[in-house]
Design brief:
Layout lengths: L32 H10 L14 E2 L11 H7 L10 H14 L3 E5 L2 H12 L5 E4 L4 H9 L3 E4 L20 H11 L6 E5 L12 H14 L2 E5 L3 H11 L8 H10 L3 E5 L10 E5 L2 H14 L10 H14 L2 H20 L12 E5 H4 L9 H13 L1 E2 L1 E3 L1 H4 L15 E5 L7 H16 L7 E5 L10 E4 L1
Parallel strand pairs: 1-10, 3-4, 5-6, 6-7
Antiparallel strand pairs: 2-8, 7-8, 9-12, 11-12, 13-14
Helix pairs in contact: 1-14, 2-11, 3-11, 4-5, 4-10, 6-7, 8-9, 12-16, 14-16
Family: Belongs to the beta-eliminating lyase family.
Keywords: Lyase, Pyridoxal phosphate
Enzyme class: lyase
Length: about 475
């Protein structure tokens, strides 16, 4: 952790009123206990496989689940659905250049489409891709391209109870050791995640990004940013890192991106849309390659799998995402939820991240062995008890070693409660706190799960279980 950080960010959180008013509503219903039992059994005790109509509060993901603004809904009517050269692409391209700073933009249907193209362009068989903790789809694309992911995040990130305001930082010593061991020519790029998802939504500091950039330039290695929640990371830099309190979110975001060579982006997070993403680059030669590959896997280089109207709504969303009122309210809402749970004695990852609250299943269900998937079992119980849908981020998500076939053993065993943007109110979070606290009080009653169906890739999406 950088010693220039401020330490005043963990004060008690009060709820701040949302900087918007509700113009349209969507009804939700809460099933009975018996109905929920039937639904989760039919889903193979995997909340991912539940029908959304059977979920009361959906904290499965913040990806594509947010509410669009009136300006974004109006933007949908401005869609130019020409197959080639849509004016909405050029509006999106200019907006990405303005706020993210990259020279070239290739649209994709969502973030993993951009990851696929990036991996196919840069990774060769036998390469090593260092990153500040893996994300399942990112690592899978790297592995399918012939690479091996190497975790270079600071040790604190693997400790649910460790303090630290920037637990998403890269351990520079680990990165240096990897370069020395395998050689810079076998490292196509350094993969940097903003507000590291699998670590509990923990941010990376600007000082650390600068150190990574300096080391990478010394060895001629590219730096690629997973920018899907970089606005949230910029907010944490503004609030926690010395020298940034007076800078705007837009200024910080631009500085972050200037320390990298390219980015993959899922616009379904920070950019406040339900679908879409992009690959952004500075090198003209890579842009030419990406423009060619996007034809094969996504669509023409001026739409990349998106409708024109979606690109227009995304451009508006990017502009709204950097507004101080928006991002502050978004992060404070998550902090309120997390701090209320912690006050009830529920074990959560602290500091609370920017997009989700993470339950520490190792402490929550300390009597359930990892072989019985405690985080998955906890996610099942949250649904049974209250209709809340969450997602496992632990042993199941970690998958298997591509060489040995043995299960990967992450140090963290978490349940993620991801918060959709501009969707839920304080009453929803207060209900969720009471429901989760009640499960915590009777946690010793719970037993684990047995895996009955295991897909080859990204198994947490479609795996099935039975109760032990």
């Amino acid at each position: 952790m950088n010693d220039t950080t401020r330490n005043d960010t963990l004060a008690p959180i009060s709820y701040e009123a949302e900087p918007y008013r509700i113009k349209a509503v969507e009804p939700i219903k809460r099933l009975t206990v018996e109905q929920r039992k039937g639904a989760i059994e039919q889903a193979g005790y995997n909340p991912v496989l539940l029908k959304s109509e059977d979920v009361y509060l959906d904290f499965f993901t913040d990806s594509g689940t947010g509410a669009m603004s009136d300006r974004q809904w109006a933007a949908l009517m401005m869609g130019d659905e020409a197959y080639a050269g849509s004016r909405n692409f050029y509006r999106l391209e200019n907006t990405v250049r303005r706020y993210y700073g990259y020279r070239h933009v290739v649209p994709a249907h969502q973030g993993r489409g951009a990851e696929n193209i990036m991996s196919k362009m840069l990774i060769k068989q036998g390469d090593f891709v260092p990153g500040n903790m893996y994300f399942p789809s990112t690592r899978l694309h790297q592995e399918l391209a012939g690479g091996t992911f190497v975790d270079i995040i600071v040790d604190e990130a693997h400790d649910a109870q460790a303090p630290g305001l920037f637990k998403g930082n890269v351990d520079i010593a680990k990165l240096s050791a990897l370069i020395e061991r395998v050689g810079a020519e076998r490292i196509p790029y350094i993969s940097l995640g903003a507000t590291v998802n699998m670590a509990g939504g923990q941010p990376i500091s600007m000082a650390n990004m600068r150190a990574v950039r300096t080391l990478a330039q010394q060895h001629g290695i590219r730096v690629v940013l997973d920018a899907c929640r970089s606005v949230e990371n910029a907010y944490f830099v503004q609030q926690r890192e010395e020298g940034y309190a007076s800078k705007s979110i837009a200024e910080i975001l631009l500085e972050m991106c200037s320390l990298t060579d390219a980015c993959t982006m899922s616009g379904k997070k920070d950019a406040l849309v339900n679908i879409g993403g992009w690959l952004a680059l500075n090198e003209a030669s890579l842009y030419e390659q990406a423009s060619n590959l996007v034809l094969v896997y996504e669509g023409l280089h001026t739409y990349g799998g998106m409708a024109g109207r979606d690109m227009e709504a995304m451009a508006v969303g990017i502009e709204e995402s950097v507004q101080q009122e928006h991002i502050q309210a978004r992060v404070k809402q998550v902090e309120y939820f997390g701090h209320r749970l912690a006050a009830c004695g529920v074990p959560v990852i602290l500091p609370v991240g920017g997009h989700a609250v993470y339950l520490d299943a190792k402490r929550f269900l300390d009597h359930v062995p990892l072989e019985e998937f405690p985080a998955q079992r906890l996610a099942v119980e949250l649904y049974l008890a209250s209709g809340i849908r969450s997602v496992e981020r632990g042993t199941l998500s970690a998958g298997r070693n591509v060489t040995t076939g043995e299960p990967n053993r992450p140090t963290l065993e978490l349940v993620r409660l991801a918060i959709p943007r501009r969707v839920y109110t304080q009453s929803h979070f207060d209900f969720a706190v009471e429901a989760i606290a009640s499960v915590h009080r009777r946690r010793k009653e719970l037993r684990g799960l047995r895996l009955t169906h295991e897909p080859k890739f990204l198994r947490f999406f479609q795996a099935r279980f039975e109760l032990l």
